[in-house]
Amino acid sequence: MTNIFIVVIVLVVFFFFIQKYVLKHDDTKDFAYQKKTSLMTMQQAAFYNALKAAVGDHGAVFAKVNMASVLAPAKSNTKKNWFIANGKISRTYFDFVVCDPRTLEPRVVIEFDNGKELHKTKVEREKLLMHVCKSAGVPLIGTSVKHSYQVSRLKRLLAAHIDLIEPSKEVRFCRKCGSPMIIKTASQGDFKGRRFFTCSRQPNCTYTENYNVVFEIEEESN
C-alpha cells in the first residue's frame, strides 16, 4: 500500500513539473495574429450570394469545406492505406457544398472556376476532386465566374440534383460590388421601353447592364 502511495506522489510531482515547464516554454504567446479582411475573394463572395439565392430554402450552403469533413476513405485491408487515403482529402477542401437543410447531409459539391490559368497544383486538385466525388457517389457541378451574376443558370444546374429547386425569374448580382441588382425599364433616350439591370445600391454604385447580356469570362487582375 505504501509503495502505491509513493508512486502516486511521484506521478503527481512529475506532472506538476511537466505542466510548469510546458507553460513556461509555451511560445504561442510570441506570435501575433490579425484578422483577415474577408473569408472569400470578391468573386467567391458574389458566387456565394448567387448560390444562396438559387438554393433558397431548399438547402444549406457551406463554403471551403474540408473534404475529410464530408467524406471518409472506404474500408481498407490495412490501416496504412486508410491513413494515406485520409491524408489526401484532409489537406484540401470543396469550394462549396449544398446540404439538406434539415439533416445537413451533403447533396451537391460545387467547384468554382475563377477563369485563371490552370497550374500543376490546381490540376492535381481537380483530378482528386473528380475521383473522390465519383467514388463516393456525390454529384459534382463545375461552375465558372459568369455564374456569379446569373442565378437562373445556377438553378438549372442545381435542379438536376435537388428536386424542389425550380427555375424562376432572372436574378443577378452586381459585378462591381456584389449587391443584388434590380430590373428597371428605361423611360427615355434611345433605349426607352427596354429593361435593364441596375445595382440596388444606387447612387453609391452606378453599375448597370443590358437585361439580355450574355456574360463571357473576362481576364481579371490579381
Automatic annotation (TrEMBL):
Which residue numbers delimit the GRF-type domain?
Answer: 174-221
Q: Does the keyword Membrane apply?
A: yes
Q: Which UniProt keywords apply?
A: Membrane, Metal-binding, Transmembrane, Transmembrane helix, Zinc, Zinc-finger
Instruction: Mark the transmembrane ranges.
Output: 6-23
Out of the domains of life, which is the source? Answer: Bacteria
Name of protein: DUF2726 domain-containing protein
**Origin species:** Vibrio gallaecicus
